[in-house]
Write a structure and sequence with these properties.
Helix 3 (131-146) packs antiparallel against helix 4 (155-179) and helix 4 runs antiparallel to helix 5 (184-193). Helix content is 42%, strand content 23%. The longest helix is centred in the N-terminal third of the chain and has 27 residues, at 2-28. The strands form four sheets. Strands 13-12-11-14-15 form a five-stranded mixed beta sheet, sandwiched between helices. It has a four-stranded mixed beta sheet with strand order 4-1-7-8. The chain has eleven helices and 15 strands. The protein is of the alpha+beta class. The chain starts with a helix and ends with a helix. Among the domains are: 27-111, Sandwich (Immunoglobulin-like), CATH 2.60.40; 243-372, Glutaredoxin, CATH 3.40.30.10. It is elongated.
Length: 373
């Protein structure tokens, strides 16, 4: 009887040990994400996970103790915590620790610390070492947005100061990358502070400092791909080809414009600068013949019927592609459009000759280029 009881107890202990080992194994494949972020505008916090398998966004409600979730370690390598109704965010890496913690004040998002793993620790140290710059940046941004600037300082002076502060942060970020070319933290700082679409060579130069061992990481690949995309839409490059439908459902292909110049404009009805630019585009249409210059506007408006109605009273006519069915979005991605309005002049051979943020002074530039060609 005693022997039988001993055997039963041994089996029970073995099962407990097996379960414990299984639980430990299971936990080792997960990473805990927790956060204590004070002064949130909303208790709902969004977590955007990124990894080789793609992106996933979850929401969690932060209470007085913050928030806590567990996610598969082998599925995602970084997480971005979005808060204040998704207006602010902070990113951390998940592949170097079993626990990643976010702590700080929601009203100072760039000073929120991320702990857990060497890359996160380095990022937190960078922000702490430059705390004065980030605090000044936040103060100036708040002053400009609320139009409650210091009585001794005009709004334009605040904007100039903000520009200087941002430039100083970029300098500090570049110094960090120079000192830590072997850390993923440097890749995140490049992404956050050192992207310059107007001078992509500067971004490429700083990205070239990253050690080859990090070239296979997802973030490096994203940055490298971005640089190549920006370079592909610079003057002198072959314009990306497209095949979309206009607001009438007619197929519009880049090859349709071969043999003539094409003015490609990106705009939106809710964009004030775009609306101010429109009369200048009408003037271009009147001054330059259709045989010499085709015009195509890509508008971020998913109501083509409204556009068609507005065109009935317009004196100038040209091709328009709207955002219905994702037509405009595809071209915005293809031409790497980060702000509007944006204008491209493509020559008869399909090469980009001009890239301009506004159309206010386009006519003399077009006339000059087209005469040369």
């Amino acid at each position: 009887m005693m022997k039988s009881k001993y055997i039963v107890m041994s089996k029970w202990i073995s099962l407990v040990l097996l379960f414990t080992a299984f639980a430990a194994c299971k936990n080792s494949t997960e990473v805990q994400i927790d956060g204590k972020i004070s002064d949130l505008n909303s208790s709902t916090v969004y977590l955007m996970y990124e990894g080789e398998s793609g992106q996933q966004i979850d929401s969690v409600v932060a209470d007085k103790n913050g928030f806590k979730v567990n996610v598969p370690k082998d599925k995602y390598n970084r997480v971005t915590v979005l808060f204040n109704n998704k207006k602010d965010w902070v990113t951390g890496f998940l592949n170097q620790s079993d626990k990643v913690s976010f702590n700080g004040n929601a009203q100072e998002p760039e000073l929120i610390t991320v702990k857990g793993g060497s890359a996160n620790d380095l990022l937190s140290t960078f922000h702490k070492n430059n705390q004065a710059l980030f605090e000044e940046k936040q103060h100036l941004m708040t002053s400009i947005q609320t139009m409650q600037s210091d009585s001794t300082m005009s709004s334009s002076e605040n904007i100039m100061r903000l520009s200087n502060v941002i430039q100083n942060i970029r300098i500090k970020a570049a110094e960090f990358v120079q000192a830590h070319p072997d850390s993923e933290a440097s890749l995140l700082l490049i992404s956050n502070y050192l992207i310059d679409s107007e001078n992509i060579a500067k971004t490429e130069t700083i990205l070239a400092k990253i050690v080859p061992q990090l070239h296979d990481t997802e973030l490096y690949q994203e940055l490298d791909s971005y640089c190549k995309k920006v370079r592909s839409t610079m003057p002198g490059e072959k314009a990306p080809e497209f095949n979309v439908k206009d607001i009438y459902g007619k197929d519009i292909k880049s090859s349709d414009y071969k043999g003539k110049f094409l003015l490609l404009t990106f705009a939106a009805p809710w964009c004030e600068l775009c609306n101010e630019e429109y009369p200048y585009l009408e003037d271009i249409r009147k001054q330059i013949s259709v045989d010499s210059l085709a015009m195509l506007t890509i508008t971020l408006d998913d109501h083509p019927s409204q556009i068609i109605d507005s065109l009935k009273t317009s004196k100038a006519k040209w091709d328009i592609v709207a955002d219905s069915l994702g037509e405009a979005s595809a071209l915005i991605d293809l031409y790497n459009v980060n702000s509007i309005p944006l204008n491209y002049l493509i020559d008869k051979d399909g090469n980009i000759q001009l890239k301009s943020e506004t159309g206010f002074n386009l006519l003399p530039e077009l006339d000059s280029i087209m005469k040369i060609k």
